[in-house]
Design goal:
Shape: globular
Distance between the termini: 52 Å
GO molecular function: nucleotide binding; oxidoreductase activity
Structural class: alpha/beta
Helix content: 25-40%
CATH superfamily of the largest domain: Dihydrodipicolinate Reductase, domain 2
CATH architecture of the largest domain: 2-Layer Sandwich
Oligomer: single chain
CATH class of the largest domain: Alpha Beta
Keywords: Coiled coil
Radius of gyration: 21 Å
Number of helices: 14
Organism: Kwoniella dejecticola CBS 10117
Protein name: Myo-inositol 2-dehydrogenase
Strand order of the largest sheet: 8-9-10-7-11-12-13-14
Pfam families: GFO_IDH_MocA (PF01408)
Largest sheet: 8 strands, mixed
Order of helices and strands: HEHEHEHEHEHEHEHHHHHEEEEEEEHH
């Protein structure tokens, strides 16, 4: 049921007015005016607030989540687009204030944080919708339909992409970046990153290789897209058999990972990396006895780029067949909005809940534990 049919417009607040807010979420919410109305913005950057307030004609602005929630402004749902390390805290704050939540991935940083968020969801009876937009692409469901009931022999999952700036610079949204963040917030971010790493890996492992902090961050950011989509298609693996990463780049960072996951009856090869080539090579390919089925993702920051499904088969007469399916040009960020609306207004179930998202941190721990130098 669309917003116009239901007759209810959800008042939305946006917390975090950075890149993804400016390029994707706020423009999409403005267009989806039959379902949503942005009533308030919140960010620690006064410059980001000023830009977005003027650009999107939203006068109500706040520099703290506490002040936002204490205001008399009508808010039904909050879009949380802040730094990853603050996600869980902001979710619990908003849930305890009775607000529904759309949270950008990763939802949290530690297993304890996932449990606290789930507790807040149940206690307050609110929707906490994790924005794994790749899982809401129409082509992913087509892939699942195509392989249903078939014996899987092998799977490849890849996410090798160019630096984000190559794609965001061509988004056509003319986003701007600001650094007027309070010094205490930057210090708190660093403190949380270190604390989370120790909680997840243990103090000794967290400090025995300076790449670990960057690796954990990468496994929770770029990797969470593929790992979540992989889980949607295949379920959770039984174990991670092997993982490896590239050498230190001189700044304590390692940009390339590969891993092998063990499923019952087949293996899944996973590879991830970021380079300086403006190509977005993200896909899942499933090999069965009589077909190869591949979903190919493009950057979500440029609207109108289709997510495609390619099916290769050997026909009964011996001919080779290749079929390319493009279900829609509508981007997954946009496809999420009516599903989020239905979950809030009509009580419709949704698949990206907090305990589902928790599995990506479990997978990240699996990968780190299976690391071989």
């Amino acid at each position: 049921m669309s917003g116009s049919q239901a007759g209810k417009i959800l008042n939305a607040a946006v917390i975090g007015c950075g890149e993804v807010a400016q390029i994707a979420h706020m423009p999409n919410l403005i267009v989806a005016s039959d379902m949503y109305k942005i009533t308030a913005l919140c960010d620690i950057s006064a410059q980001s607030l000023e830009l977005c307030s003027k650009r999107f004609s939203i006068p109500n602005t706040f520099t703290s989540v506490t002040d936002l929630l204490a205001s008399p402004i009508s808010i039904d749902v909050v879009f949380i687009l802040t730094a990853d390390q603050f996600h869980a805290e902001h979710i619990v704050q908003c849930a305890n204030a009775g607000k529904h939540i759309m949270i950008e991935k990763p939802m949290a940083q530690t297993l304890k944080e996932y449990d606290l968020v789930e507790e807040a969801r149940v206690k307050n009876n609110v929707v906490i919708f994790v924005g794994y937009m790749r899982r809401y692409s129409t082509a992913l469901q087509r892939l699942k339909d195509e392989i249903e009931g078939k014996e899987i022999n092998y799977v490849r999952v890849r996410d090798i992409i160019g630096n984000n700036k190559y794609f965001t610079s061509q988004s056509g949204q003319y986003q701007k970046y600001f650094t007027d963040h309070p010094a205490e917030s930057s210090a708190e971010l660093s403190r949380r990153m270190k604390s989370n790493l120790i909680e997840n890996l243990g103090e000794e492992k967290a400090g025995n290789d300076k790449r670990n902090a960057h690796s954990w961050s990468l496994l929770h950011s770029l990797a969470s897209h593929d790992l979540s989509a992989m889980r949607d298609v295949l379920g959770m693996p039984e174990r991670c058999l092997f993982s490896s990463r590239s050498e230190d780049d001189g700044q304590g960072k390692s940009w390339w990972w590969n891993a092998v996951f063990g499923y019952k009856g087949f293996k899944c090869y996973y590879e991830m990396g970021i380079d300086e080539v403006a190509v977005f090579d993200a896909h899942i390919e499933v090999y069965t006895n009589d077909s190869r089925v591949k979903i190919q993702y493009d950057t979500p920051y440029v609207k109108g780029l289709p997510i495609k499904l390619t099916i290769q088969k050997q026909l009964p007469n011996g001919d080779f067949s290749e079929q390319v399916i493009r279900p829609t040009y509508v981007d997954p960020y946009t496809l999420e909005l009516p599903l989020l609306y239905d979950s809030i207004v009509n009580g419709k179930d949704y698949k990206t809940k907090p305990l589902d998202a928790k599995n990506d941190t479990i997978l990240a721990k699996m990968i780190m534990d299976a690391f071989v130098e």
